Fold these 2 entries.
Entry 1:
Amino acid sequence: MKKVLTVCGLGQGTSLILKMNVEQALADNGYQADVENTDLSAASSMNADYIFTSNEIAESLKEHTAKVIIINSFFDMEEIIEAVQQNVD
Amino acid sequence: MKFLTEKLIDAEFDASDAEEAIHRAGTLLANADGVEHQYIEAMIRSYRENGSYFVLSPKIALPHARPEDGVKDASVSLVKLKSPVEFGHKTNDPVSLVFGLGATSGDEHLEILQKLTRLLNEKEAADELINAKSIDEIINIIEKRN
């Protein structure tokens, strides 16, 4: 099972919206994954295979061992599905 | 739960910058008894400290703070800006729709974000809201999708 994080500044709102849409995109493409939303400081010390986040937050996650995937529009399912297909093994 | 009712919508607000727009979104939440007044300042503080990552998609911002900053009830407000405002986001500026979020940590929080996501995942919804002329028109667009 793949471990996926969605990350925003506070871990409360934005990352939860992204979690819902990333979960949907993963499920629609047949991936089994555990998706969790969190804030930037917690994410830095968490293990994960993939991190979905905004451009701005990604700058602070460069050192993370997970593959960091940038989503520009959190409400654009086409962008999110494309990002899943291109990046998730 | 308080989700985009008449009291939570400003259909035409003239903001000179991002902080003024966030302040208006927070004030609507406070006026509807969704948050304490201190939450408004916390929303602005979060913008100053964490940047504009909450500009979630082109033209759309979702400023918020933490539940412990003074949220009374899971709530969402909407400020439609008369003229678009720069929030400092690389790809999604300028912003026309500011959804203020009173964030809690319970089931209602999840439910309210599901409602908002359902609305905004519809490609046409943002432009329909931006072109709406009145609060009634905005409420119709929202109800059509929920």
Entry 2:
Amino acid sequence: MKTIKVMMRFPASQTDKPVTSYLVRDYNLVFNILQAQIHPGMRGELTMELTGSEEDLANGIAFLRGEHIEVVVVSRSIVWDCDSCVHCGACTAVCPSAALSLGSDGLLSFDESKCVLCELCVKSCPLSVMAVNYTEN
Amino acid sequence: MTRTFDEINDKIRRGQVAVFTAEEAVEMARECGVSEAARKIDVVTCATFGPMCSSGAFINFGHSDPRIRMTEITLNNVPASGGLAAVDTYMGATEQSRTEGMSYGGAHVIEDLIAGRPVTLRASSPGTDCYPRRSLEATLTLAELNQAYLYNPRNGYQNYPAATNSSGRALYTYMGTLLPDYGNVTYSTSGELSPLLKDPELRTIGIGTRVFLAGAQGYVAWQGTQYTRGHDAYEDGDDFNGATLAVIGDMKRMNPRYIRAAVFPRYGVTMFVGLGIPIPVLDEDLMDRLSRSNERIFTQLVDYSTGRLSRPTLGRVSYAQLRSGSINLAGRVVPTAPLSSLYMAREIAALLKQDVSRGEFLLQEPVEMLPVSHPMNPMAGVKEERLP
């Protein structure tokens, strides 16, 4: 079993099709929706985790592409907007891996290699300077 | 060794004043002793940059043609008070947007204005013979307003308890996210840089004291709301708490770097306010107070797991312990985190030091001292209610 993250871009004509249901029924995939912006009759975007065997994942993605849906395998990261940050330290209260820490100079630092992507900082930052970013692999 | 405000202001005007930030003054006293430090230092600059919910702005928009007496007012869809005269309002920092909820509020309107961004005013009125207009919409910038000044009813808290959570679920509070089962401790102060902790008896801070408020020169207008004077004696010194300040300052002279709208998740909108106060070293006693480092300044640790008025206190901790990044609590090492920015407080203290040294910021002796004792009572005439 393998878990990947995919970003799907729907053309306007496909926004009313329950494609995720087919992924479950026909390709044995388990999905977890991370971000969704779908407006019927308009372009839509859906980011989700898909779990399944290599073969089922490949077939499922091929099915989506056959439905004229753009599929991109992405990776998730936390981004810190340092310029807008006031270095209050509220995020360090919830960071479980000490990826976010305050130095003796009072400045916040973010060690991405320690980040476990829990997103608690995103939810706890009073100035919304921590964000989730999805990049295409 | 004694000094007066007048003597210090003369030195400032002559360019001969010795100004130290509160951290530098602590260091100086550690190196050469309190007496020597008192001789060497004329002014100590203190500062804080923390979330202060009790903040807001008075605004006068000028009259429209025909005139309107606004009773329903929004700025960028955030309700402002319609309870003042025709085109006056008070925009409270914690007020939330009618369309965006807690992601945008009064603090954001204030920040937008100070940053020079246009803000949309919508107002309505039943109309009167002298104010016949019933509605209007206008897009305005700070420069186009007749008056716009912050009047923050409660800023500069002398001391504030640190917060933790003994319950089994995360709590979303104005003290940040408190993780379950003593998962963390948060605190909000600049500690040894904080004005009312450095002049804890308020010998030099009172009505009329000139302050740095978000980049402008403002004033202490009054005692802050919920002002009280607390004083607990311990073997290693006294803990002071309870004093607060109401401060006023011209938004047109403010710098958006030193005032920032903020949102605490599942709590609401608040505002980081940059406040700086220069403290004159009048004598050795005051220098002794000013020399106190985070090792000698304490607060209480409070459990936020109860929704009741009275919260259990778990002990006394120093700001040096809190700043270290963890404390021992309930037999465990618990991470600690600030909510007030030390980095920004240092920047403001340094900026204020520069302004005083250059003769651009004179000290103002209080025109009236704040009361040495003042009660703070719970709400009267209200029945106790069970928590759900």
